[in-house]
Input
Amino acid sequence: MNNELISEFLKLLANENRLAIILSLAKQPLIVSEIVEQTKISQSLASQQLKLLKSARIVSSERHGKSVLYSLYDQHILHLLKDISEHVSEKSHD
Output
């Protein structure tokens, strides 16, 4: 296991705006204006976050005419988020 790579990847997820984008894209592929509408973040911030998510292979993009359609790269991220959600929701066994 590469601890440094894993740490950098988890840092990407430790941002509410990026998580909101990922969860929006989990429902369906979207263009930037739809992401902005659903997440309530600015277009420039959405574009910055999408660039980071794309470089980490969390998000992919496909050009359709003048628009760029964003989608999740694969389902791995959703499995990871589901496991994290279940873990933080568990009651302590202390």
